[in-house]
Structure formats: structure tokens, C-alpha cells
Amino acid sequence: MRIMIAAAGSRGDVAPYTGLGAELRRAGYDVALATTEAFAPLVRDAGLEFRALPADVRGRGGGTGRRELMRTAAAFVTELGRGFADALDAGADLLLLSATTAPLGWHLTEATGTPSLGVYLQPTVPTGDFPPVVTGARSLGRPANRAAGRFALRMVDRVHEQAVAELRRRLRLPPASPAETRRRQERANWPVLHGFSPALVPRPSDWRSGLKVVGNWWPHLDAAERLPADVEDFLRAGPRPVLVGFGSMASGDGERLSEIAVRALRRAGLRGILQAGSAGLAADGDDVLTVGDVPHALLFPRLAAVVHHGGAGTSAAALRAGVPAVTVPVTADQPFWAARLAALGAATEPIPFRSLTAERLAESLGRVVRLQTYSRAAAEAARHLAAEDGAGETLKAVRRLTDG
Question: pLDDT tens for residues 154-182?
Fold first, then answer.
């Protein structure tokens, strides 16, 4: 049986599906991962078939204002939609759709009859428990949280308008708005599995029955993979260091952030590893090492703490390793995940990106490394995550769909 997973966005939006796909492949399925060309090596390294989607988030501007984010997202989704149907030309018996690709994938399901299942990395359905993850972390009260959630879905519908109209014309389907299609999926109780830990976000009690939280899908890691020699040498040369990285965020801000990071580390008396990322962090010194892409699963358990942007994947990786964090959220869903880590006690209160200074970072680092309450909370969360099997739960759901 052939399964196609469709995912798009930054590395953190794609990498978890390599681990999920590898688990499905081990269970005997033929698995393809449709995503943008930048992530073809990740897909192939996991032993999965790569299918190209046309859009790319790189080079689309560094603005973080909501209006600019909406324009950027609409342009990205429209480009994505123009090649989305091509990914299915090679065939599939089941579609697994991310939150980004589901509003497009529904139309392929309608046109071809191919069944589909949602595999989301973020909660998107309105709930009274918390506001939409893209609007911030502060609760507005249960009725207002739900109202804000419905408004956020309407904004997603607007982002997809042009892409959906073009895709439906290509598929020879009658006109239907994104909102109309979404409501149809909700009435049909379309199943969605959420790949994050209930220790971090418990399943809301007011969600419909088709929505489940199954635990994280971890990026594929080859059993033979090891840390680079220079990283091993640095880890062995002194006390546990702190990693500072902003993932795919903060492009063009590398010089300023590198200076802040090094000053903060030295002020706090800590060794550090700077992960270059899209920002291009870099520094030299006996107490600082600069690295590129390094598997979090190998590096994080050997750290004293992680300074990161609050992305869903990095937040989960730090918890999995039992390592406390200092978060510096930049935009989108990052304030939500940063606040969740703080609520667990596994991170300090978030430092907003625009408010980041060496002094604030040093103070937070000093607390998170030296106060045992943070490491104990992170270790407790790690025990919860170790008992979860997100990929295994997804495999069960796939079998229920395909065996039925």
C-alpha cells in the first residue's frame, strides 16, 4: 500500500514526518514524503521516496508583523497549490496531510477518492482551553478563546482562497470556498492526529471526537549517526555547555545575536555552542563553538540548557532530553510553545525577541542552569515523553483506515 505524506514550511515543519514515514515504512508501507526541494536530502536519508512541492519558505522576507505574515503565507500557499496535484500523479492509496497542506489536500481527496488523515504538529481547532497558537500565549477566557480560534480559522481560509480556486479549476471540481470545504470536513468528523505530547498540551475536552493527541513524531535518526568530532572534543573539554540557536528564524540578524549570545554566556560563566541556523550565528573562542545542523537527539542530552526560539520541534526535543530552556520566541506559534514550557517549569519566562539583551539572557541562563527546579521539571516531562509512542499510535490509526 502506498502512503503519501504532504508537508511544507520550515525544517521544523517537515523533519518530524521523516521519522513518522520511516516507522510506516518499517511496518511494510511504501511511503513518499511530498515537500519542497530543500528537504529532499532529509527525505531520502530516511529511506523515503521524495516528491517535490514547488514552494519554498526561504528568501521570503524577515518581517514578523501579522499583515506581512499573512501576505507571505498567501503567496507561499498559492505557489504550493500550483504544483500540489502533481505530487499525487505518481499515485497513493492514503494521504497524510499536515496543517499546512490539508486545506489543499482535501480537494485532491474529493477529486480522486483517495482517503486522507490529518497529521498536525500544532493544535488548530478552536477551544476554550487556550487562544489560537498563532495569536500569542495569553488566555482570553474560554468564550473569547473559542471566538479567537474561529477568527484564526477564517484567516487561514483567506490565505488559501486563491490557491484553492486554482486547484479546484485544475481538478475540474465545481467552485467551493476554503471555508465551505473546511466546514464539510468538520461535519464529516475528519480524523486528525496531533504530533505533540499531552504533557505539553493536554487534549482539550471541548474538541470533537475525531481529534486526538498522540505524542511527538521525532525526526529520523540513523542508528549509526554520531556527533562530529569537533563537537565531541568540545563537550569533553569542560562543563556541560549551553546551546544557542534560532532555527529558521532571525535571518540577517546573526551578527547582533552572536554578540548577545557570547556576552551573555560569558557573563553567566558558561560555555556555549552556537548553532548557525538561518540567522548565521557564529563566534570563535575556547569557550564557544559554532556548529551547523546537528541532531538534537544526540546533542541535547549532553547540554546544561538550550536557548531557542520556541519552535514546536525544538521545544519538544529539549523536553525529550530532560534539559531546561530559555526561550526567545520570534513569531507565529513560538510564544505559545515558549509559554507552555514555562508553565511546566522546564523553562524561564520567555524573553520576547525584540527585548533580547545580553543582560536579560545572562540572568535567565544563570537561573535555569543553577536552580534545580528547572532541571527537575524538564526531567519529569522527559519521563512522560519516553512513555509515549506518537508514530506507533499513528500506525494504528492508519491500519484502522486501511483495514476498514
Answer: 999 999 999 999 999 999 999 999 999 99
Give the helix/strand (H/E) hosting 211: strand 211-213
Please say if the pLDDT value at position 404 is more than 70.
no
Q: What is the pLDDT of residue 284?
A: 87
**Residues 42-46: what's their mean pLDDT?**
97
Question: What distance in Å separates the CA atoms of residue 245 and residue 318, rounded to the nearest whole number?
Answer: 12
Q: Which three cell numbers stand for residue 100?
A: 499546512
pLDDT at residue 58 is higher than 60: no
Pairwise CA distance, residues 27 & 79, whole Å: 34
Strands 305-308 and 2-6, how do they pair? unpaired
pLDDT of residue 332: 83
> Which candidate, 199, 212, 195, places its Cα nearest to that of 319?
199
Strand partners, 49: 32
Nine cell digits for residue 163: 490557491
Cell numbers linked to 131:
487562544
- Asked if residue 100 lies in contact with residue 7, where contact means CB atoms within 8 angstroms, the answer is yes
Question: All 3 cell numbers of residue 102?
Answer: 490539508
Residues 6+ apart with CB under 8 A from 263: 358, 362
Pairing of strands 211-213, 242-245: unpaired
pLDDT for residue 22? 98
Please report the domains of the chain, with CATH numbers, ordered by start residue: 2-216+388-403 (3.40.50.2000), 229-386 (3.40.50.2000)
Q: What is the DSSP string of 239-308?
A: S--EEEE-TT--TT-HHHHHHHHHHHHHHHT--EEEE-TTTT----STTEEEESS--HHHHGGG-SEEEE
